[in-house]
Amino acid sequence: MKVIKIGAVWCNGCLVMRPRWQAIEKELPWLKTEYYDFDQDKTAIERNKVESGTLPVFIFLDKTGQEIRRLNGEVEKDKLMAVINEHRDK
Questions:
Q1: How far apart are CA 56 and CA 78, in angstroms?
Q2: All residues at 6 or more sequence positions from 56 whose CB lies less than 8 Å from its CB, including other chains
Q3: What is the pLDDT of residues 4-30, one digit of tens each?
Q4: What's the Cα-to-Cα distance from 46 to each of 14, 38, 39, 65, 76, rounded to whole Å?
Q5: pLDDT, average across residues 27-53
Q6: Which residues face 58 on adjacent strands?
Q7: Do 13 and 25 meet the contact criterion of CB atoms below 8 Å apart?
Q8: Which range among 37-41, 44-48, 78-82, 85-89 shows the weakest confidence by mean pLDDT?
Q9: Percentage of the chain surpassing pLDDT 70?
Q10: If we measure between CA atoms, which residue out of 47, 48, 36, 45 comes closest to residue 9?
Q11: What is d(CA 27, CA 19) in angstroms, rounded to the nearest whole number?
Q12: In what order do the strands lie in the sheet containing 67-72?
């Protein structure tokens, strides 16, 4: 499983989410994540069909790279952990 995280420096929700993800990544060292900046990584933004009004965006991918879940905005750590655990082996 891999999580694509998309945010921007001007996005308040993105700033809120940064320490939550840091805590999760520390607790789950096996979890693969990639971060893309909305303003700088246009190829990744277009490929993942992300609009500026939906930031931050978290895209959960299975082992084959297919999207299995997408969350937008500020998400509580408990909910993120539940989604990760639900799809861990996919």
A1: 17
A2: 5, 6, 7, 11, 13, 14, 17, 72, 73, 74
A3: 999 999 999 999 999 999 999 999 999
A4: 19, 10, 11, 16, 26
A5: 94
A6: 5, 71
A7: no
A8: 85-89
A9: 100
A10: 36
A11: 12
A12: 32-37, 2-7, 57-61, 67-72
> Which residue reads 């001007």 in tokens?
10
Residue 52 has pLDDT above 90, yes or no: no
Enter the tokens of residue 48.
């993942």
Give me the amino acid identity at 43.
T
Which among 47, 39, 46, 42 is positioned nearest to 7, based on CA atoms?
39
What one-letter code names the amino acid at 82?
Answer: A
Query: What number is the average pLDDT over the span 53-58?
Result: 93
For residue 11, give every residue at least 6 positions away whose Cβ sits within 8 Å of its Cβ, in sequence order, or none: 38, 55, 56
Residue 28 has what pLDDT? 96
